[in-house]
């Protein structure tokens, strides 16, 4: 048992939106490490950040990713910062990881000023998002087999691109 696709990328890349559609198209279940953490902790992520701090959240996230990779047979979306944990990067080795990319302008527009994303809830979300992209882009690329740009592409269009990438991979493996 292991996921047919693991989606990584920054907040607003569409991991949850695209992951849900992709799972529907493939007829498999969808899971999201953010939702797994919230279900296990019985609390919202914003509350965990506020009350316990980011390191506690990252440890819960690592455990959720480990569980998802071991038990989940469908599409698994990771929280935007999960790949910054070394243990998560190690766990991803050998899995079909797809990086959904988004540029600064579109990313900021998509996430808006939602307080549901504690890392972006500061005074200057644009600067925070920019720094986050700069730090994380090489990390997303290092764990992913495929990179799909999502700016100006509909969620269904992104699903098409992910499926094409995964199918090309299967074809490559068969040669
Ligand atoms: N390809 C797309 N085109 C237009 N809007 C999109 C696209 N993908 C996602 N969105 C919109 O952007 C917002 C963020 O999407 P979503 O929650 O799926 O991102 P995420 O990658 O899961 O973010 P997070 O890391 O915070 O969980 C949602 O309002 C969603 O409808
Ligand atoms: O980019 C991040 O570090 C985060 C993204 C969200 O998916 C959540 O996992 C949390 O808000 C942290
Ligand atoms: Mg999400």
TrEMBL record:
Pathway: Metabolic intermediate biosynthesis; chorismate biosynthesis; chorismate from D-erythrose 4-phosphate and phosphoenolpyruvate: step 5/7. PROSITE patterns: SHIKIMATE_KINASE. It catalyses: shikimate + ATP = 3-phosphoshikimate + ADP + H(+). Pfam families: SKI. Substrate binds at residues 34, 58, 80, 136. Catalyzes the specific phosphorylation of the 3-hydroxyl group of shikimic acid using ATP as a cosubstrate. PANTHER family: SHIKIMATE KINASE, SHIKIMATE KINASE 1, CHLOROPLASTIC. This is Shikimate kinase. It comes from Actinomycetospora chibensis.
């Amino acid at each position: 048992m292991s996921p047919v696709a693991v989606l990584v990328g920054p907040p607003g890349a569409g991991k949850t939106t695209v992951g849900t559609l992709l799972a529907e198209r493939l007829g498999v279940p969808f899971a999201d490490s953010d939702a797994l953490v919230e279900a296990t902790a019985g609390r919202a992520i914003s509350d965990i950040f506020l009350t316990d701090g980011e390191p506690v959240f990252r440890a819960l996230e690592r455990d959720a990713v480990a569980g998802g990779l071991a038990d989940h047979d469908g599409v698994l979306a990771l929280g935007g910062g999960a790949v910054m944990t070394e243990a998560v990067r190690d766990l991803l080795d050998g899995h079909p990881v797809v990086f959904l990319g988004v540029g600064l302008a579109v990313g900021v527009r998509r996430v808006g000023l939602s307080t549901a994303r504690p890392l972006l809830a500061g005074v200057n979300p644009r600067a925070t998002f920019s720094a986050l992209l700069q730090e994380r882009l090489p990390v997303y690329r290092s764990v992913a087999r495929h990179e799909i740009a999502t700016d100006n592409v509909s969620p269904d269009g992104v699903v098409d691109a992910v499926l094409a990438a995964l199918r090309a991979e299967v074809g490559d493996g068969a040669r």
